[in-house]
């Protein structure tokens, strides 16, 4: 029961994923939604690395986790540039009030 | 329970508790700083899974890069005079019920699936050599494409964030 197995890592990543989805669904601030996305990407990475260790797939799982980290960095930069533009246009970043493409 | 198990539970508790605070606290700055502890906890989990290079990359890229970007985003999108930076919430009750169901389904699926566990016979001391060899052989094309993607993202972010002078 307390011996750590593959299931422990999978359950940890499932709970982290659920928390990320909860953050995306309930928060209004666009930056908080980005934080939820980062939590989800981290949970996916834990799955990749856990299966890489327990599944005898060599190092491919770790390589893909590395790629996910690179994509997360690019995504965060682009998304924050967009959020800055939204703030300049609407003077807030509450995603439930922004329903126009231009002012 | 040996040291490995104790360390796993320690890092798991750090990760999950701080992730819970990230999505429930109303102050956006607090959320960003709790995200720091979440990233450190996940880096510890990587170390326990024999992915040492990935743990260092996690700390350098997530804590050193993405978290700073998020903090910039929080600071730049709130009025400076506004001392407490708060975020509104919506649909709390239905979201809690739905996410609770989702979490229960996912966790039970993870527990009751009969995963075929077959650990590698020997784990090398460090993963850097194997990762580097894979990056320039099997995954060379993806590696180069990711370099181009990062360049495009850099140019795109700079040109989107700059306001055009009209």
Automatic annotation (TrEMBL), chain A:
<dbReference type="GO" id="GO:0030964">
    <property type="term" value="C:NADH dehydrogenase complex"/>
</dbReference>
<feature type="transmembrane region" description="Helical">
    <location>
        <begin position="32"/>
        <end position="51"/>
    </location>
</feature>
<dbReference type="GO" id="GO:0042773">
    <property type="term" value="P:ATP synthesis coupled electron transport"/>
</dbReference>
<protein>
    <recommendedName>
        <fullName>NADH-quinone oxidoreductase subunit K</fullName>
        <ecNumber>7.1.1.-</ecNumber>
    </recommendedName>
</protein>
<keyword id="KW-0812">Transmembrane</keyword>
<comment type="function">
    <text>NDH-1 shuttles electrons from NADH, via FMN and iron-sulfur (Fe-S) centers, to quinones in the respiratory chain. The immediate electron acceptor for the enzyme in this species is believed to be ubiquinone. Couples the redox reaction to proton translocation (for every two electrons transferred, four hydrogen ions are translocated across the cytoplasmic membrane), and thus conserves the redox energy in a proton gradient.</text>
</comment>
<comment type="subunit">
    <text>NDH-1 is composed of 14 different subunits. Subunits NuoA, H, J, K, L, M, N constitute the membrane sector of the complex.</text>
</comment>
<keyword id="KW-0560">Oxidoreductase</keyword>
<dbReference type="InterPro" id="IPR001133">
    <property type="entry name" value="NADH_UbQ_OxRdtase_chain4L/K"/>
</dbReference>
<keyword id="KW-1133">Transmembrane helix</keyword>
<dbReference type="GO" id="GO:0005886">
    <property type="term" value="C:plasma membrane"/>
</dbReference>
<feature type="transmembrane region" description="Helical">
    <location>
        <begin position="63"/>
        <end position="87"/>
    </location>
</feature>
<keyword id="KW-0520">NAD</keyword>
<dbReference type="GO" id="GO:0050136">
    <property type="term" value="F:NADH dehydrogenase (quinone) (non-electrogenic) activity"/>
</dbReference>
<comment type="similarity">
    <text>Belongs to the complex I subunit 4L family.</text>
</comment>
<keyword id="KW-0874">Quinone</keyword>
<dbReference type="GO" id="GO:0048038">
    <property type="term" value="F:quinone binding"/>
</dbReference>
<feature type="transmembrane region" description="Helical">
    <location>
        <begin position="6"/>
        <end position="25"/>
    </location>
</feature>
<keyword id="KW-1278">Translocase</keyword>
<keyword id="KW-0813">Transport</keyword>
<dbReference type="Pfam" id="PF00420">
    <property type="entry name" value="Oxidored_q2"/>
</dbReference>
<keyword id="KW-0472">Membrane</keyword>
TrEMBL record, chain B:
<feature type="transmembrane region" description="Helical">
    <location>
        <begin position="55"/>
        <end position="76"/>
    </location>
</feature>
<protein>
    <recommendedName>
        <fullName>NADH-quinone oxidoreductase subunit J</fullName>
        <ecNumber>7.1.1.-</ecNumber>
    </recommendedName>
</protein>
<keyword id="KW-0812">Transmembrane</keyword>
<comment type="function">
    <text>NDH-1 shuttles electrons from NADH, via FMN and iron-sulfur (Fe-S) centers, to quinones in the respiratory chain. Couples the redox reaction to proton translocation (for every two electrons transferred, four hydrogen ions are translocated across the cytoplasmic membrane), and thus conserves the redox energy in a proton gradient.</text>
</comment>
<dbReference type="GO" id="GO:0008137">
    <property type="term" value="F:NADH dehydrogenase (ubiquinone) activity"/>
</dbReference>
<feature type="transmembrane region" description="Helical">
    <location>
        <begin position="97"/>
        <end position="115"/>
    </location>
</feature>
<feature type="transmembrane region" description="Helical">
    <location>
        <begin position="6"/>
        <end position="23"/>
    </location>
</feature>
<keyword id="KW-1003">Cell membrane</keyword>
<feature type="transmembrane region" description="Helical">
    <location>
        <begin position="30"/>
        <end position="49"/>
    </location>
</feature>
<feature type="transmembrane region" description="Helical">
    <location>
        <begin position="139"/>
        <end position="161"/>
    </location>
</feature>
<dbReference type="InterPro" id="IPR042106">
    <property type="entry name" value="Nuo/plastoQ_OxRdtase_6_NuoJ"/>
</dbReference>
<dbReference type="Pfam" id="PF00499">
    <property type="entry name" value="Oxidored_q3"/>
</dbReference>
<keyword id="KW-1133">Transmembrane helix</keyword>
<keyword id="KW-0472">Membrane</keyword>
<dbReference type="GO" id="GO:0048038">
    <property type="term" value="F:quinone binding"/>
</dbReference>
<comment type="similarity">
    <text>Belongs to the complex I subunit 6 family.</text>
</comment>
<keyword id="KW-0520">NAD</keyword>
<keyword id="KW-0560">Oxidoreductase</keyword>
<dbReference type="GO" id="GO:0005886">
    <property type="term" value="C:plasma membrane"/>
</dbReference>
<keyword id="KW-0874">Quinone</keyword>
<dbReference type="InterPro" id="IPR001457">
    <property type="entry name" value="NADH_UbQ/plastoQ_OxRdtase_su6"/>
</dbReference>
<dbReference type="GO" id="GO:0016491">
    <property type="term" value="F:oxidoreductase activity"/>
</dbReference>
